[in-house]
Design brief:
With about 290 residues, the chain is of the alpha+beta class. The chain has helices at about 55-75, 95-105, 180-195, 220-225, and strands at about 15, 20, 30, 35-40, 80-85, 110-115, 120-130, 135-140, 150-160, 170-175, 205-210, 250-255, 260-265, 275-280. Strands 1, 3, 8, 9, 10, 11 and 12 form a 7-stranded mixed sheet that branches. A 7-stranded mixed sheet has the order 2-6-7-5-4-14-13, covered by helices on one side. α3 (about 180-195) packs parallel to α4 (about 220-225). The relative contact order is 0.18.
Length: about 290
C-alpha cells in the first residue's frame, strides 16, 4: 500500500513501478547525518559503443558489471537510473535493473517502464540498499517520433542522527526528459509539476534533463522555480556530464529542507553520460 497519496494527476499516465527487494518490505529508518545519492543515464548497457544492438549479451553484461562496480564504490543510499532496460531484444534480452540488483550492494529497486515495443522495454529506475516505500511510475504523454519518457518515485525514511522526533519521509525521483524538442520538454515539465506538487515533504529529483541552466528560457530553471527546488552551482565549470562539448544535462535538484554537502561528477566511462553524486544534509535553517 502506498505511504503517500497522489490525487488529481492524469490517470492515463499513472502506473505501478515494478518493485523488488531481497530484504523484504520492512521499513528502514536511515540515521546517517547525510544522504548520499547518485544519478546516471545507463545508455541501455552499451557503455560508449554507438548502439547496443551491435553488442552481444555477454558484452552488455560486462558493461553493466563495470557500471555496477562504479555504483558500489559510490556507496550511495539511493541510485537514480535512466535508459534502464527491462528484458529487451535490442540489449541482451535480460532485465538490466534486476542484473544490477543481483550483482551490486543495491538489492532493492523500483523500475518504471515508459517505452515499449517489440524491440525494447525501458524507462527509469531507483535502487537502494534499503526497502523503498510507496513507489510509483509516471509516463509522459507520447512524443513521437522520440520514445516515451517519464519518471519513477519512491520514498525512504530518514532521521539524521536520530535527532528528530519523527523521521522525514524523503521522496526520490529518477527522471528522463525528451532530448529533441524544447516544446516537448516544457510539456513534460508541466506534467512533472502537476504530479510532484501534490507530494508533501522533502524531495530529491535526479536524472537526465537533456537541458542546461544557461539559457534565459531554460526548461530546467522553469522546473526548479515551479517546484521550489535548488541545484548545485548552476553556472560553475567542471560539471559537464555528456559529450565532447561539455554539456551539463544530468542534474540533482533538492527541496529547501536540504542542502548540498558535496557534489561531484565521476570521470569513469561506463556510459555515454557521466554519473553525478551528491551528499545532502538537513538544512539547519529549515
Amino acid at each position: 500500500m502506498p505511504v503517500f497519496a497522489i490525487t488529481g494527476y492524469l490517470s492515463w499516465s499513472a502506473a505501478s513501478a515494478l518493485a523488488g527487494c531481497e530484504h523484504g518490505n520492512e521499513i528502514a529508518v536511515l540515521d546517517s547525518e547525510f544522504l548520499r545519492v547518485v544519478t546516471l543515464n545507463m545508455a541501455h548497457g552499451r557503455k560508449d559503443a554507438r548502439n547496443q544492438m551491435l553488442l552481444n549479451e555477454e558484452t552488455i553484461r560486462n558493461n553493466l558489471r563495470q557500471l555496477g562496480g562504479l555504483l558500489d564504490r559510490a556507496d550511495a543510499d539511493v541510485i537514480a537510473l535512466q535508459e534502464a532496460d527491462a528484458a529487451s531484444a535490442w540489449s541482451g534480452k535480460f532485465n538490466h535493473v534486476d542484473f544490477l540488483s543481483e550483482t551490486t550492494i543495491y538489492k532493492c529497486s523500483s523500475h518504471g517502464v515508459h517505452a515499449s515495443n517489440r524491440m525494447y522495454d525501458f524507462g527509469t529506475a531507483l535502487m537502494s540498499k534499503h526497502p523503498f516505500q510507496g513507489s510509483f511510475a509516471h509516463s509522459f504523454k507520447p512524443s513521437k517520433p522520440t520514445t516515451t519518457k517519464g519518471f519513477t518515485v519512491a520514498a525512504l525514511d530518514w532521521n539524521p542522527g536520530n535527532d528528530l522526533p519523527e523521521p522525514l519521509r524523503v521522496k526520490f525521483i529518477s527522471i528522463h526528459l525528451d532530448f529533441s524538442r524544447r516544446s516537448v520538454r516544457r510539456s513534460q515539465i508541466d506534467e512533472v509539476v502537476s504530479v510532484l506538487s501534490k507530494i508533501d515533504g522533502p524531495m530529491i529529483l535526479m536524472g537526465d534533463f537533456n537541458t542546461d541552466w544557461q539559457s534565459e528560457d531554460s526548461s530546467l530553471k522553469y522546473l526548479a522555480e515551479h517546484l521550489g527546488l535548488s541545484v548545485f552551482e548552476p553556472h560553475a565549470d567542471g560539471f559537464s556530464t555528456y559529450g565532447d562539448k561539455g554539456a551539463r544535462l544530468d542534474w540533482i535538484l533538492i527541496s529547501p529542507a536540504l542542502e548540498f554537502r558535496t557534489y561531484a561528477v565521476y570521470p569513469d566511462v561506463v556510459s555515454d553520460h557521466y554519473a553525478v553524486a551528491a551528499e545532502l544534509v538537513l538544512d539547519d535553517k529549515s
